[in-house]
Amino acid sequence: MRQKLLIYTDQAKNWYLSRDKREQTLLLSMALLGVFIFFYISVSSVSGALRERESRVAKLKQDLDTVTEIRKRYISLKDKQKGIEASFSEMKWDQSEGEMTYLEGLKSRLLAGSESQNERFRIEPLTTVPFGEKYERAQFKLTVSVTDLNALVGFLSEISHGNRPLLITRVRVERRPAGDSLSVQLDISSIRAKVA
């Protein structure tokens, strides 16, 4: 094989030397141009591959930063969840005073005399839904008509910040067409441990 390669190289060399100067210059120029084109294509493909790899590395770094941020948020939220669960685990609703009895007691204490006589205080229990693994959320719809705005503010504050805080998830206040009373609808939730 090596012998044949040497023979072909000698034949090419003899053929090249048998050409005149102008043809030799043209052949050498074409050979150099071919080498340059090959080199240019090789460098372009390598630089393209490097650019692609660099963009993939940048995307992976961005994904890693995102995952790190998500992990930090997850740990923070888990800590908050533990704190919230600890505060809810301390709150017990016994059979003698459930959420409805508690709300009625707040109403008689804070809204006495400020209720409109046209509409009575109503509490309607809604469905109880799971809230995490160990807790459930009892939902209530409360409707009341009041004439004293300060009494209403005190009532709402006691519901959400009192010694047995409940979650107010929706408040709807409308002025009644007749008189100066307000119609108030509240969606209230209570978080409690699941009954075994």
- How many runs of DSSP E, i.e. beta strands? 4
Query: Strands of the biggest beta sheet: in what spatial order?
Result: 1-2-4-3
Strand content: 15-25%
Cα radius of gyration in angstroms: 41 Å
Q: What's the helix-strand series?
A: HHHEEHEE
Largest sheet: 4 strands, antiparallel
Structural class, please?
Answer: alpha+beta
The helix tally amounts to 4
The best one-word shape is rod-shaped
Mean pLDDT score: 82
Q: Termini distance?
A: 88 Å
Q: State the low-pLDDT regions, or none.
A: none
Note down, in words, how this protein is organized.
- This protein is α+β, with helices and mostly antiparallel strands and 196 residues long.
- It contains 4 helices and 4 strands, in the order H-H-H-E-E-H-E-E.
- A 4-stranded antiparallel beta sheet has the order 1-2-4-3.
- A hairpin with a 6-residue loop joins strand 3 and strand 4.
- It starts with a helix and ends with a strand.
- The mean pLDDT is 82.
Summary of the model, kept short:
The mean pLDDT is 82. 57% of the residues lie in helices and 22% in strands.
What are the key terms here?
196 residues; alpha+beta; 4-stranded antiparallel beta sheet
